[in-house]
C-alpha cells in the first residue's frame, strides 16, 4: 500500500515493552463501581436509577440527552448505592454526578437488545441506533459518541473507514493487545461500521513497531477483499486522526472540518470491537482494556476493567506502586491528563493509567528560549510554537490566535523536543481555554444585548399604548363634556 | 520543581534528552580540534588571550545576571557565555593584547546580550558585535596578524616573551604578516591583478605573505584562530550536522552563495576577482558558515528562512570583500542579516496543516 | 514670478476647495469612537457603572472621563477590548476578576411584588403580581439590580460554578522560565 509522508513529528522512547507481552487479564470485580454520567463529549447522560435500585449487568442506568450524548450501563449486577458527586478523572478533579453501584457478585446479565443476526442486511439507521443505544464512544481517548460519527455517511461520500490501530503514544499497549487477541472481533466490527457508513473500503493503520498485531490483523482481514492492513511508519503523532488519514490518503483535512470532507472516517480499533459486541450480541459498552504501566508500577498489565473501577483498584491488581510516582497520568504520556488522585474511576476513554518516575518524565526546570527552531521543525501542524508561546506569555492572545494556536491539537511534540524545557503545550492549552472562554463570554454579552434591546422595544410599545389609551380617554372625556355642554 | 499532585501540569510527561547545556557543549566540542591546533600554532600569546577572553566573558555574564537579580549558577552553566567567549577569542588576532579580549567580552556579553535581556533575547550575534566594535575602534591592533610560530619550535616566543606580547603589548615587528584576503586586497589597490598575487604566494610562501592551498587548508597561515584551519573547522561543522545540532541549510547557503559569486566573477574578470574556492577557504568563511551564522538566537527558525539568511550572509560577505574598505566581511554580513532575521521569520512561516500558505482553510472538495 | 505665484494660488484654491468639499460630504454625524465603544459594552443597560446606560458609559469613555474598568458584568475581556481601543495601558493582573454570578430567587421568601421584574434589564425574571417569580438562569447576567430592590431578601447572588466544560488550564508559572 502506498503511504504518504506527514509533517514533523518525533521519536520518543516508547517503553511499550513494559506491558506489550502481557496478555489481557480481567480485573476481579471491585467492591464498588463509580459510573460518571459524563464520560463523553457532549451532553451528560441523565440518571434513570435511584439509591437502592437493583440493576442487572448491561442494564441502561442513565439515558442520553440530545444527539451528541451517550447512555451509561451497569457493568455488573448489583444495587445502586447512591447517585453522588465524585471527583472526575479530569485534571481539575471537579466533582461530577456519578452512579455508585455495589456489585452483588452474581454478574447476571439483564435483558439485552436482540442481536442483529445479519448486520450487512440491516439498514444504516438500525446499526447506528444500536451503537448509540450501547453507549459506544471513541475509545482512543477522544470519547466522541460513535453513533454520530457513523451517520457521517449520510452527508458525505466516503471512500475509506480508517481503523486507527497506530497507538503512537508511548507505554500504551491496550490497542496492540486487542488487535492481537481479538483480531476477528475488530475486523468484524470494522466491516459493520463500514457498511453503516457506506464506505467501500476498510484500512487498518498500525505503526510498524507492532509486528504481531499487524500479522494478526492481516490474518483476520485475509478473508475480506475490502479490508486492508497498512503498516505505517513509527512517527509520533501518527495516531492523530488527521495525520493518519493523510498518511493513508495523502489528503489534508481543511482546518475546522472533519476528515469526512476528504472521504475518510476514523474509528479506533477498540471502538470497532465494542461495535462488534453491540451488534452481534446486543452487549453495551461496559468494560474496556486499560494499560497500567510506568516504572512506578510493580507489575505493568493490560487489564480488561469494568467501567467505573477505581484507578486504585487497578493499581492494586498490578501489585501496587513500587515508589511514589512523580506523575500519575490518565492516558498516554504525550497527550494524557494528570489524574487528580487514585480515587477516580476508569471511564470509557481511559486507555492507560501511568505511574511515572521523575527519571521517565525527564522533567527539568525551564530556561529561556534559545530560538533553536526545533519546535518549528517538528510541529505536525506547521505552526510556530516559539512565536506563539512568546505572545501568550505576554497575554497577546489575539496575536497567538492569528498565528493559529487554535489549530494546535496539543500533541506535545514541541514540549518534548524543547531543549529549554519550556512548557509550550501548557501555554497553548491556556490560550485555547482563554480564547474559548472569551468567545463564550462574548456570545453571552451578545445575547444580553439582544434581550435588553427587545425589552426596550417592549417598554416603548407599552408606553405608547398607554399614551394612546390616555389620549383616547381624554378625547372621549372632552367629547362627553362637549356633549354635555351642548346638551 | 513542583511536587506531584500540586497544581495540574499539562502533558507531555515525557521529554527528549536534549538540553541547552548539551547543545552548547556539543558546539564547543566541535570547536575543540581547530582551537587546540591553532593554539599550538600561535603559541603562548594566543593561549593567554584565549584564556583572558573566556574568563572575562564568564565574569561579565555572572555580573550581569547578578545585577538583573537572576539565578547565576544555572544560567552560567548553560555554556552560552563560554561559547560566546570562545568564538570571540577565535576571531581576534592571536597575538593581540589582553585588553582586546576584555573589551570584547564587555561588548559581547554586557552590550550585545544583556541589554537585550540575556540569553535568547539578543538580536545580534554577541561575538560578532564585539569583533566589529573592536575592529572599528582599533583597526591597527585588530589587523596585526602574525605567521604561525608553533609551540616548541625554534622561533616560538618563550613564556616571558609571550607575557610581554599579550600583557605588555610588545609585538615584535618582524613577525607581522598579512592575511590572505588582506594581502590580495592591498596588492589589488597597488594595481597588481588578483591572479598574480595569488600566484606569488605559492612561489614565495616561505618568506612572505601567501601560503599555498594546502597550507591554507591546514592553517599554516596568518589569521585569527578560527580563520586559519579550514579542514578542522569543516570537520567540526560536519560533526555538528551529524549530531543534528545544526542543519545543513545555513552552512550550505553561505558557502554555496559565496563560492558561486566568487566563481562567477572570477570567470568574468580573473584580474579583479579571486576564485570561488579561495573565498570559501580564506578568512572567516568556514567558521562563519558553520559556527557564527548558525547561532540559534540570531538566525531564522524555519528552514526556508535559514536558506534565505545563509544566502544573504554569503552574498554580503562577497560584496564587502570585493567592494568595501575591509578585506573581510563575514562579521558585517552576519550582523546585517541578523537585523533581518525577524522579518525573514515573519515571511517564512511554514504552511499550517489544513491551510493554504496564506493561512486560509484549504478549499473543500478533493484534489 | 507671475507663473509661480499663479500656480501656487491655483493649487491653493483647488486643494482648499477639495478639503472643504470633503469636510461637507464625508462628515461623520456621531463620534465614531463612541459607537465602537458602545458596541464593545455588554449593552444590558444595567447601570452598575454609574451611568444611565451603556451608551452614556461609552460617551464618558470616549471623553476620557471614565475608567476602562468601569463595567463589572463585562469582565476582563471587555476591559481588555476597551483598553486596546483607547490605547490605555492597564495592568490586567490588577483588574480584579469578578467571578460571574447569577441570581436565584428563594421561593419561600418571594411575595410576588414584581419589583425585580421591573428592574431586570434583560427580562430574565418571569412571574406576575402575587405569584412566585423565578429567574431564567441562562439569560441572567448577574447585574444584581434585582438583588438590591428585593424587599424580602429573597434573591441571592450565586457564583457561576466551574464545570468540566468551563475549566481550562492555567498559564504556566512565570518564575519557572527565568
Describe this structure in words.
The complex is a heterotrimer of chains A (487), B (367) and C (178). With 487 residues, chain A is an alpha/beta fold. Helices cover 36% and strands 17% of the residues of chain A. Among the domains of chain A are: 16-27 and 124-288, NADH-ubiquinone oxidoreductase 51kDa subunit (Rossmann fold, 3-Layer(aba) Sandwich); 369-487, Fumarate Reductase Iron-sulfur Protein, Chain B, domain 2, CATH 1.10.1060. In chain A, the strands form 4 sheets. Chain A has a 6-stranded mixed sheet with strand order 1-14-13-17-15-16, sandwiched between helices. A 4-stranded antiparallel sheet of chain A has the order 2-8-7-4, with no helix packed on it. In chain A, strands 11-10-9-12 form a 4-stranded parallel sheet, with helices on both faces. In chain B, helix 1 packs across helix 4 (98-113) and helix 3 packs across helix 4 (98-113). With 367 residues, chain B is mainly alpha-helical. Chain C has 178 residues and is mainly α. Chain C has helices spanning 2-25, 32-40, 54-63, 75-86, 115-119, 145-149; strands at residues 101-105, 125-126, 134-135, 155-159. In chain C, the strands form 2 sheets. Chain C has a two-stranded antiparallel ribbon. In chain C, strands 2-3 form a two-stranded antiparallel sheet. In chain C, a hairpin with a 7-residue loop joins strand 2 and strand 3 (134-135). The longest helix of chain C has 24 residues, at 2-25. Chains in contact: A-B, A-C, B-C. The interface between A and B is large, with 75 and 49 residues.
Which properties best describe this structure?
heterotrimer, A: alpha/beta, Rossmann fold, Fumarate Reductase Iron-sulfur Protein, Chain B, domain 2, 15 helices, 17 strands, C: 178 residues, mainly alpha, two-stranded antiparallel ribbon, 4 strands, 37% helix
